Amino acid sequence: MNNAFLEALKRRRTQYALGRNLPTPPETVTALVREAIKHAPSSFNSQSSRAVILFGEQSVKLWDIAKDALRKLVPADVFVNTEKKLNSFAAGAGTVLFFEDQAVVKAMQERFALYADNFPVWSEQSGGMAQLSVWSTLANAGIGASLQHYNPIIDEAVAAQWGLPASWKLRAQMPFGSNEGAFPDKAFMDDEERVRVFR
User: Fold this and answer.
1) What mean pLDDT is reported for the chain?
2) What is the mean pLDDT of residues 64-78?
């Protein structure tokens, strides 16, 4: 089976060994992320997903914020491992922050009251599709990435640091950079266990 989109999805892998030797300039990365977000689907075309792209020292600042937050929560004797992991994210070329705009969700709830309870769920689904779209797009540009979730403990500091709207709810962080390590083999469940077919 030859399918270009499936091949693109297969190239999306978690990369923890990140460097700053991007195969493409920041302007191109920015354009890729914008296009990926633009064309990610959303319920009722609500377009609730938002993103912030941090390059270089701005990205390092993000992971310093995460260190400061986690230092207060993680026991000192094991924090060294936490810090090592965060340093690996900071070693990359940048980070994409993903948000869902709660003002959009609220507006959709008011506009379509019958489905009000569903819009927060649909917003999360839209956010997940935006994240996959960006991740796959970066992977197909030869850029490594992983998806992290240090929200909500960094939410307030992130919003203050970059002057973000109060309605933007942080949902994920995607450190990205050059691929500085090989991808290990990936195990898969049997297809029959995950997809059932009836004819």
Assistant:
1) 97
2) 96
